[in-house]
């Protein structure tokens, strides 16, 4: 019987203040409290709370048969804890449910393995400790925020005694890798690799927006296709993100997931599992050799812009200086600057405001603001070291 693993990801980055040249050398005041408060309030109101409500209802109505994994970033937890503490308690109770498996990633939802494997390991440990403090669960499942992987990263995850890693299929020379099986790399015997099912991910990204109410015939077709599939495991990641807080689009996505789960349950031919339940089965495993290249990265980084390359270079150059300074607040500021959202804005000719949908910044403006913020950290650190 095919098993579906839903992997829900919830994240909200910090908003950074615009910094002028005249503030260089002063203690960096980079966090935009007013914008952060608005962002996290909107995310919870229009996306996270409705999502948790639907997921809780599905768990209850299925008698606990609906199971899934969830990755809540460290920055989202920090923002909720600071600005909306009552929601923090609700989120804690939600994540403690036995039907939910927490997933660990770098704390600040950054592609930190591109910067430093030492910093990568620190952030993984920070996130694992935060989740353990919140839920009492020591998760054995890891995923990089952009679902990329390489052998160097997997080696560190393996040494931290993680049992599974969620990832996109890496590029291979000889044929296509099946995403329906548990994979292993022979170098990491106790670490199993779970690949995203790209086909069904595409359906879940596009289908919710076809109509206001899900097409039941279309849902039956998907369920029928999955139930007849030879695929043993179907992993589908779903984002709960600050960039997707339009109430109508959120409602459509949640309705689609709700009716799909109900249709799948009614069929009796599909089951929902947590990743750990998949990892402990005797389903066939397939060998998969991860690349040793540290620079094997996701598709969003392959066509990088000159501006973002320079921003990443400057960001990396600050690691030793800031860590030697021994200032925990400076270190935290440097880490929130690593969030992929800040860097990804330098990929597009124009960036759109999350709330209005209209162009907000040019790529060059984003770059200048980001570099000004990093310069503030750099100059202050050198001045006071």
Strand and helix layout:
Blueprint (H helix, E strand, L loop, with lengths): L2 E9 L21 H29 L6 E5 L1 H10 L1 H11 L4 E3 L14 H19 L5 E3 L7 H9 L4 E4 L14 E3 L7 E4 L2 H9 L9 H12 L5 E9 L5 H21 L3 E2 L2 H5 L5 E3 L11 H4 L3 H12 L1 H7 L2 H9 L3 H5 L5 E3 L6 E4 H21 L2
Parallel strand pairs: 1-2, 1-8, 1-9, 2-3, 4-5, 5-7, 6-10
Antiparallel strand pairs: 6-7, 11-12
Helix pairs in contact: 1-2, 1-8, 2-3, 7-8, 11-15
Strand-pairing-aware structural class? alpha/beta
* Strand count: 12
Series of secondary-structure elements, N-terminal to C-terminal: EHEHHEHEHEEEHHEHEHEHHHHHEEH
Q: What's the end-to-end separation, in Å? A: 61 Å
Shape: globular
β-sheet strand percentage: 5-15%
CATH topology annotation of the largest domain:
7-stranded beta/alpha barrel
Helix content: 40-55%
What CATH first level of the largest domain would be assigned? Alpha Beta
Average pLDDT, all residues: 83
Q: How large, in whole angstroms, is the Cα Rg?
A: 21 Å
Report on the biggest sheet: 5 strands, parallel
Give the CATH architecture of the largest domain.
Answer: Alpha-Beta Barrel
Tally of domains = 2
**Tally of contiguous helical segments:** 15
Low-confidence stretches: 295-300, 354-358
Write structural notes for this entry.
This protein has helices at residues 33-61, 74-83, 85-95, 117-135, 151-159, 198-206, 216-227, 247-267, 275-279, 299-302, 306-317, 319-325, 328-336, 340-344, 363-383, and strands at 3-11, 68-72, 100-102, 141-143, 164-167, 182-184, 192-195, 233-241, 271-272, 285-287, 350-352, 359-362. It is an alpha/beta fold and 385 residues long. It has two domains: 3-287, 7-stranded beta/alpha barrel; 299-383. Strands 1, 2, 3, 8 and 9 form a five-stranded parallel beta sheet that branches. The protein has a five-stranded mixed beta sheet with strand order 4-5-7-6-10. Helix 11 (306-317) runs parallel beside helix 15 (363-383). The protein is globular and about 65 Å long. The protein starts with a strand and ends with a helix.
């Amino acid at each position: 019987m095919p098993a579906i693993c839903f992997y829900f990801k919830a994240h909200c980055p910090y908003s950074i203040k615009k910094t002028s040249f005249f503030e260089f050398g002063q203690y960096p005041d980079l966090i935009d409290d007013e914008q952060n408060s608005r962002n996290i309030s909107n995310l919870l109101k229009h996306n996270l709370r409705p999502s948790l409500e639907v997921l809780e209802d599905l768990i209850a109505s299925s008698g606990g048969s609906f199971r899934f994994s969830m990755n809540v970033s460290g920055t989202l937890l920090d923002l909720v804890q600071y600005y909306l503490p009552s929601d923090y308690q609700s989120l804690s109770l939600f994540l403690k449910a036995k039907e939910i498996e927490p997933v660990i990633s770098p704390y600040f939802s950054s592609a930190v393995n591109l910067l430093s494997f030492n910093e990568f390991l620190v952030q993984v440990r920070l996130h694992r400790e935060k989740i353990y403090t919140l839920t009492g669960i020591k998760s054995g499942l890891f995923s990089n925020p952009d679902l990329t992987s390489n052998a160097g990263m997997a080696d560190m995850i393996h040494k931290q005694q993680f049992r599974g890693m969620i990832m996109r299929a890496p590029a291979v020379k000889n044929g296509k890798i099946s995403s329906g099986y548990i994979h292993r790399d022979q170098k990491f015997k106790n670490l199993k690799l779970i690949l995203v099912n790209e086909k069904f991910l595409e359906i879940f990204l596009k289908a919710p927006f076809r109509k206001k109410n899900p097409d039941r015939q279309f849902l039956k077709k998907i369920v029928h296709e999955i139930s007849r599939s030879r695929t043993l495991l179907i992993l589908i990641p779903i984002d709960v993100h600050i960039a997707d807080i339009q109430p109508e689009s959120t409602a459509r996505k949640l309705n689609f997931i709700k009716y799909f789960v109900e249709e799948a349950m009614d069929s009796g031919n599909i089951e929902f599992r947590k990743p750990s339940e998949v990892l402990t089965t005797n389903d066939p495993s397939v060998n998969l050799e991860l690349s040793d290249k540290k620079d094997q990265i996701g598709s969003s980084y392959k066509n990088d812009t000159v501006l973002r390359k320079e921003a990443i270079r400057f960001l990396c150059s600050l690691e030793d200086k800031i860590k030697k300074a021994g200032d925990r607040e400076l270190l935290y500021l440097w880490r929130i600057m690593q969030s992929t959202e800040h860097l990804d804005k330098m990929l597009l000719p124009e960036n759109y405001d999350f709330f209005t949908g209209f162009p907000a910044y040019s790529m060059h403006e984003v770059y200048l603001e980001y570099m000004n913020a990093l310069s503030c950290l750099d100059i202050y650190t050198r001045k006071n070291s």
